[in-house]
Design a protein that fits this description.
Rossmann fold, 15 strands, 18 helices, 461 residues, 3 domains
Length: 461
């Protein structure tokens, strides 16, 4: 068992989003220990407690705390603003000092994720240095943060993960850019929210996001200016700008369909429509979205798990192998809304009709199938009952070519299909339009509307 650590010092409540991330980490790794270090725990850090209490800058206090926590206990340390994505093996990760920097530089090293065995000498050396150092609270990144860590790392061996493992986007970018990024190697996403920034820096971040086409993130940051008399006029003007951008984009979406464009998904937009990204958006918008997963993913990473972990929608996890069902149940033990079911009547499990009855004859909104040979029959059964799930994702390996042709013929009138290696994703057209529309209005990501948007704005293709 590995211990995951986070720190939240100070009187302010932990933001709801950070609590959501922490619960998601616990769903990702059931059976492991999760510890939140608060002010009342500072006395458990005897080497750093006096310095921690002397400092006023929250990030610096957390830096000092993390060094002693990792030295004393080892495990995985995470900043509060890191959300989980794909799985890793915590025991293996913490077997040696493992770090991940937001860039390729080795002069400094980010501290949002660090894994280590207990007693690592790099933390002992940093603690000894910081006990007597003259700490400049005006330069946290240099005095206690990434630049200090990078300096001490230079004398020690460590495993360096690629930046994309925990920093798939930069601090100057909006979170929405990850929809276009390859997240296949991403284990967690450090969310550069910026709510902690001082007024002027927060203003700069708002304008950077708008300049990159995103208005959703700036709208959230603007809430931090409520009651701020000094920046009231600026915040009002920017709020009006965001409203205007949204209005223009919504009107654009009303006009573009009249221009006769084909709203098909191009290859360059395939990353935006990957299952986990679409499902994460769908579950956040409609938490009661029902999921049926038939079979167990043999893929790494699992194409759906990131969304299940972060959103915990009501899910039936169905497999015909009772051993795999037991593994599924253990794997999702921290999910409040997931249920593993054996499709194995001969072994005491349920028959297919009993599974429908257990679901109250309510069909899935998201149907994910990992058994290529049996997928066509399951999908056909759902369609034959008159249901049209918003998402159908299936493995084509082992599927009879005739069954695949038949299936595509049945999906053709209502769904857009995309191939991802051995997998196919079928999205109902209304979902495609709603998802793509939301991305365009809120994040400036045009996808299926690209050609029409260019025409309306006089931009050459």
């Amino acid at each position: 068992m590995t211990t995951f650590h986070r720190i939240w010092f100070g009187d302010k409540p932990i933001p709801p989003a950070y609590e959501d991330y922490w619960r998601a980490w616990q769903r990702q790794y059931p059976g492991h220990e999760f510890v939140t270090w608060r002010d009342e725990d500072i006395d458990r850090l005897p080497r750093m407690r006096d310095r921690i209490r002397q400092l006023r800058v929250p990030s610096m206090r957390a830096d000092l705390g993390s060094f002693e926590i990792l030295h004393a206990h080892g495990g995985v340390y995470l900043d509060c603003d890191v959300m989980p994505w794909h799985r890793f093996r915590p025991e293996e990760m913490a077997r040696e000092l493992t770090v991940c920097n937001e860039s390729d530089s080795t002069e400094y090293c980010s501290l949002g994720f660090v894994a280590s065995p207990p007693g690592h000498p790099v933390f002992d050396a940093m603690i000894e240095y910081l006990r007597d150092a003259d700490i400049d609270e005006g330069n946290p990144h240099i005095a206690t943060g990434p630049w200090l860590f990078g300096r001490f790392l230079a004398g020690h061996e460590c495993r360096r993960l690629p930046s994309s493992a925990f920093y798939p986007y930069a601090a100057v970018e909006p979170l929405s850019v990850v929809r276009r990024r390859d997240l296949s190697g991403t284990l967690g996403i450090h969310v550069w929210g910026g709510s902690w920034l001082p007024g002027t820096a927060k203003q700069d971040k708002v304008m950077q996001m708008i300049a990159r086409g995103d208005v959703a993130e700036p709208a959230v940051l603007l809430r931090g200016f409520e009651g701020d008399v000094e920046h009231a006029d600026w915040a009002r003007d920017v709020g009006l700008m965001i409203e205007a951008v949204r209005d223009i984009r919504e009107k654009t979406l009303q006009i573009v369909p009249l221009l006769g464009y084909d709203f098909s998904v191009n290859a360059k937009d395939a990353a935006v429509f990957e299952l986990a990204k679409v499902a994460h958006w769908l579950f956040a918008r409609a938490p009661d979205t029902r999921v049926w997963q038939v079979g167990t993913s043999r893929e790494r990473p699992d194409p759906l798990r990131a969304a299940l972990v972060n959103d915990d929608p009501p899910a039936l996890l169905i497999d015909s192998d009772t051993a795999r069902v037991a593994a599924l149940a253990a794997d999702h033990a921290a999910h409040a809304n997931a249920r593993a079911v054996a499709l194995a009547p001969a072994e005491g499990g349920m028959a297919w009709e009993e599974i429908w009855a257990a679901a109250g004859d309510v069909p899935p909104d998201v149907l994910v199938l990992h058994d290529g040979a049996g997928s066509a029959a399951v999908i056909a059964d759902v369609l034959d009952r008159g249901h049209r799930p918003a998402v159908i994702h299936f493995d084509m390996v082992g599927m009879d070519p005739a069954d695949l042709r038949m299936l595509l013929g049945r999906l053709g009138d209502d769904y857009a299909t995309l191939e991802y290696g051995a997998h196919m994703a079928a999205y109902r057209f209304d979902l495609i339009m709603e998802y793509a529309g939301a991305l365009y209005v809120e994040n400036g990501i045009a996808t299926v509307f690209s050609e029409g948007v260019k025409t309306l704005n006089g931009v050459e293709a």
